[in-house]
Amino acid sequence: xxxxxxxxxxxxxxxxxxxxxxxxxxxxxxxxxxxxxxxxxxxxxxxxxxxxxxxxxxxxxxxxxxxxxxxxxxxxxxxxxxxxxxxxxxxxxxxxxxxxxxxxxxxxxxxxxxxxxxxxx
Length: 121
Known about the structure:
The protein is mainly α. Helices cover 40% and strands 3% of the residues.
């Protein structure tokens, strides 16, 4: 038994809905060209804020950075091999506490609600 849903039967290879069809844009009845949401005047324009430009610039800078700092990895590997690598547990604990405080201070932080600090008794 063959079932047919929406004109697609099980025997044909699956394709994305709308694949191979051109996207139809609304047409202006007077000119036959694409509609302009700004009326009959000029072309459309997009303005990007300074913050958006800065964010785009920062995103690109992060993308350009290597995923791994090879020099730092080599430095730590050499120190471990020589037995000279030491861990400062107090420093790590302090950094974790500072990071936790910074996360709690973020605006609209869901962490603030999910992880309330215990009452001091």
